[in-house]
């Protein structure tokens, strides 16, 4: 028997570990999404159609 009272090896992650990994992956996904949105917006600003659309909407 192992020192911690469990027999054999266990390869499963604890609930706290899984929660931490999910939070990290979610944070990375959100940051990449924001970066992609900013990049796409900057590319769209180069298009005359998009800038005209912003002007018509009063957002430029």
Kindly describe this structure.
The protein is mainly alpha-helical and 60 residues long. The protein has a domain at 15-53. It contains two helices and no strands. It starts with 14 loop residues before the first helix and ends with a helix.
Short description:
The protein has about 60 residues and is mostly helical.
Give a quick set of tags describing it:
60 residues; mainly alpha; 2 helices
Topology:
Elements: H1 15-44, H2 48-57
Characterize the overall form: rod-shaped
Determine the N-to-C terminus distance.
Answer: 70 Å
Radius of gyration: 24 Å
Q: In percent terms, what proportion of residues is strand? A: under 5%
- What structural category do the secondary elements indicate? mainly alpha
Mean pLDDT value: 86
Number of DSSP helical runs: 2
Order of helices and strands: HH
Helix content: 55-70%
List unreliable stretches of 5+ residues.
Answer: none
- Major β-sheet annotation: none
- The strand count comes to 0
């Amino acid at each position: 028997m192992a020192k911690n009272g469990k027999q054999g090896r266990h390869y499963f992650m604890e609930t706290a570990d899984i929660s931490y990994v999910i939070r990290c992956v979610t944070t990375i996904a959100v940051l990449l999404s924001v970066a992609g949105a900013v990049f796409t917006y900057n590319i769209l600003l180069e298009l005359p159609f998009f800038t005209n659309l912003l002007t018509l909407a009063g957002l430029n």
